[in-house]
C-alpha cells in the first residue's frame, strides 16, 4: 500500500471536496483527494446511455446560485436556458390534463386564492429565516415539532391546495413524504432559494443548464489538481487526534468502566485539538495535518474512526437520512410536444410522475423529457419488474403529453438509491425535531476533521451551489487555523 503525506486530505471528489482542495492548493498547501468511485462528481454524473447524453444527477443552474455561476464562468463553461415556450400542463384530481400559461395553474378560484394566501404567508416566514442558521429563529423549536403536512392542513381543509403547496418541498425537493419532516425543514429548503415563491417557480429554480453537462464542473476542478486526485479509493479508517489508541478488552467490570472513562476523555480532548490525521483507503494511506469529509453524512458510518467520533456526532447522524427519487429520462426522435404548442413543463400532485420538463440537450435534434417519481411512489415502483415500472412511468407521462410519450427511443431511470456511495437522492435532511436539535452542530469540525457537502449547506442547500459554498467554507476554516 502506498503512503503519502499532505497538508490536507479530502475524502470525496464531488463539487464540495474539489472546491476545497483547489482553494487550499491556491493557498500553497499540499492536498490529496480520495474518491471511492471510479469517477469524480459525486451526485453530478453526465453519461451517454444508448447514444443519448443524459444528466443522471444534478443539472440546473438558477439565478440565485452565485457560487455555482462564478465557478462555471471561471472554468470557461457556457450555459443555455431550459426550453419553456408554449403551454404548460396540469393534471388535477379528476385526472384531466389542462393546458395553461402563466404562474397559476388551472384550479378552482377558491383553491387559487388559498394557494396565494398561504404562499404569501410562507414567503413572510421564510424572509425571517437565515438559511445558514434556521435554528436561531425564535419559533424554530415550535416549527420543528410540526410536520410540513400537518402545518399545511392546519391552514386549510382544501386538499388540492395542500397537495400542491406540499409537494414543492416534499416530493420535488426533499423527496420524502410530507409527514416525515418538519415545517422548519421546509422553510430552510425555501430560504435556501431565497423564498418559497422561488422554490415553486420552475422558470426560476430550473433556469439554465451547462452545455455539455454539469459534471464538467467537478471534472475540470479535478484536472487542476492532476495526480493529487485518487479514484477507486474508498476510505475505510481515519485515525485522528494525538492519541488514537483504543483500550484492550478489560479483564473486569471496574477496569472496563475506567477504560471507557479514559476513552471518553481522549475523544473529548482530541475533538478540540488539531493534531494530525491518518486516512487509510483501499490502496493508499495519507498522513495529513487536516482532513475534510466531503461526502453526505449518511456515509460517515462507512468509515471506522479511531478514536470514535464524539457522542454528539453519533446521535446527530442517526437523525439524518436521504430522500429518494427516480429521475426518468425519455428520449424521442423529435421534441414532439413542441409541435403541439407545449413547453414540456408539466406537473400534478396526483400523478405518478409528479413533474416533468423538456430536457433536450443544446443543439440536439432529438427531444428529451425528464420526469420525477419520489418518496413512497418510488419505493412502490421498485417492487415491480423493470418492464412494468417502465410501462407505468410512461403511462403517467402520456397523461401530460399524449400517447407519443409512450414510445421513446431511449429510456433510462436514474436510481441513486442503489448507488453504494450515495444511497438516495437528492440529499440528506433531518427528521422531525432534528434540525433545531442538531443543526448548529452539523458543520462543526471534530479535531482535525472538517466537514463539507451540499447536505449541510444553508444557501444552496441540496444543490451544487451549496456544495461549492461549503467547500470554500471548509477550506477557509483550515486556513484560519493554520494562520492562527
Automatic annotation (TrEMBL):
<dbReference type="InterPro" id="IPR002937">
    <property type="entry name" value="Amino_oxidase"/>
</dbReference>
<comment type="similarity">
    <text>Belongs to the flavin monoamine oxidase family.</text>
</comment>
<protein>
    <submittedName>
        <fullName>Putrescine oxidase</fullName>
        <ecNumber>1.4.3.10</ecNumber>
    </submittedName>
</protein>
<dbReference type="GO" id="GO:0050232">
    <property type="term" value="F:putrescine oxidase activity"/>
</dbReference>
<feature type="domain" description="Amine oxidase">
    <location>
        <begin position="16"/>
        <end position="479"/>
    </location>
</feature>
<keyword id="KW-0560">Oxidoreductase</keyword>
<dbReference type="Pfam" id="PF01593">
    <property type="entry name" value="Amino_oxidase"/>
</dbReference>
<dbReference type="InterPro" id="IPR001613">
    <property type="entry name" value="Flavin_amine_oxidase"/>
</dbReference>
<feature type="binding site">
    <location>
        <position position="372"/>
    </location>
    <ligand>
        <name>substrate</name>
    </ligand>
</feature>
<dbReference type="InterPro" id="IPR036188">
    <property type="entry name" value="FAD/NAD-bd_sf"/>
</dbReference>
<feature type="binding site">
    <location>
        <position position="235"/>
    </location>
    <ligand>
        <name>FAD</name>
    </ligand>
</feature>
<dbReference type="InterPro" id="IPR050703">
    <property type="entry name" value="Flavin_MAO"/>
</dbReference>
<feature type="binding site">
    <location>
        <begin position="35"/>
        <end position="36"/>
    </location>
    <ligand>
        <name>FAD</name>
    </ligand>
</feature>
